[in-house]
Amino acid sequence: MLTLKSEKIKTCVGQLSNNVRAENIDYKSYIELYSGTENIHNINNINNTVVYGRRGSGKTHLLRALQEQLIIDFQERRNFPVYVDLRRIIPLLPSDKSSPDSAAILIFKYLTQELAHTIATNLSFIYNINELDSNYNLSLSAKTEKTLDIFKKVYLEFDGKKFKKPSSLKVSEEEIKSLGANGTLSSSPSFTGKAERTQKTALTTDHDSYISILNITNELEELITELNLTRITILIDEWSEVNSDVQLFLAELIKKSFSAIKISTKIAAIPNRTNLGIKKEQKFFGLEDGGDIFGYPLDTRYVFEVNKSQTRDFFNDLLHRHLSAIDELSILRLLKDNKTTKEKTINLFLANVALSEILVACAGIPRDFMNLFINAYDRFLLSSGKDAKRISVKNLRSANAAWYETDKKEQVDKHHVERQLLIEIVKEVIERKKSMHFLIPEKHAKNKHIQNLIDFRVIHLRKSGYSHQDHSGTSYNVYSVDYGCYNSLNIARNKLDTSVLDKINLKELREIRRISLEDSFFQSFLMNIGEAFSCPHCSKPVDTNHLAYQKQNLCNNCYEKIPDGE
């Protein structure tokens, strides 16, 4: 009989760490491993979509699964997917400091080059030609000849046998001026190319030259027609790795080049590190959320405190799919020997209280769930008595504290202001109110330090647009403090005392409406860190990060003009 301590199950769980990052998955199908297939269906459309999620929320896996689904449906729908990891493009940029506009054009050129190269290397699939057919080379050559000129214009070289990507690309002054036309953001972005970038890009041959991005739309449209495609879907991963100011120009290039033709863009991005567009007097520069592109958030889809059954089913399915992909026969036998089903895989491994806590602790992030599960299982094997049958609360809490130390603490410690804010939140919410959850008025939700703590995954947004029973008409967001952080900040103890969490209420959200961090909390904090000063008119702290002060020198409380020098 197989148990959780059987060698086959130990081996199986031990190999889960290979699946923690989607780019490292080495199985035949992303879809088979993907839990939450409704996400694939929800973004499988012709709209431009930005998939928002923190690190580990499953953005890459979702894009890869969508790519696979489009390939499966290709002969019927003729929608060809192209996956691009921007991390592979960014290192190709010049090492010297370039202006945001020219950097964006260069990234866009590499992106369209990747698009063309992916299509060129998959012509047999697109034309549905059997490579084993004796007439394969003749048929493909005839069809390739028709598209050869288009591919050469879209930044590819052809040596008579295969398509290659040239070693370098350049940015022309003409392209920079085109990007800036009618879209001036401020006096700071430069729309004039440096001297070394004014030369038009040329092929290695003397008689051919690359087309400008001014003409790229026509060439891509012709390519779509020539290949009898209904659409091309570009899946852009790691968008937030691009500098924020460059993102703005890159988004404008995508809109200018793709919006009028049958190309859809799916972008994976981290919310706090994404800059898609800005409203100006003349026009909207970049991609406008809700107009040019539609947001799809992953972070708040699986919140245990909001929807227990949906969250539990999602992570059960996630665990079962990944374990079965490693050793399906052993997992089937484990379930059979313990007289349970795949729908209760997670219950077989975790005791009831431990199950609830891991679903709260992972905050809806699959990668955090996987790491917590692996570490808790390891502690179960090392510290449990011979009669222990499932992972306990003690195992989980110990794993959680260790996971915070190895994955999150160092990042928080590097940012002094964020660390101090986290300490103040922990003192107020956990120590004084004995709660993991708290409210913040929505007007403080964009505070950069709060956003950074969310980005570091030590504060978790659980629900937006919530009401406070004492403040009618004011909208709040619900947050939770990460399980591991309060202990690791050395506020109460240096080592984990598992009894501490027993005193903290995992409240239903409707029960936490009195636990809120109001204006006084943030004003006091900003004054302490030097990011606020007393207004000479109303005496309230002026937030120096507020747009009213930064743009018009106004107090963000009374909106009176602050005299220069104050």
What would you note in describing this structure?
The strands form 5 sheets. Strands 2-5-6-1-9 form a 5-stranded parallel β-sheet, sandwiched between helices. A 3-stranded antiparallel β-sheet has the order 10-12-11. Helix 1 (about 5-15) packs antiparallel against helix 12 and helix 8 packs antiparallel against helix 10 (about 215-225). Helices cover about 45% and strands about 15% of the residues. The longest helix has 30 residues, at about 310-335. Among the domains are: about 80-290, no CATH class; about 410-520, no CATH class; about 530-565, no CATH class. By secondary structure, the chain is an alpha/beta fold.
Which key phrases capture this entry?
five-stranded parallel β-sheet; three-stranded antiparallel β-sheet; 14 strands; flat; alpha/beta; single chain; 13% strand; 566 residues
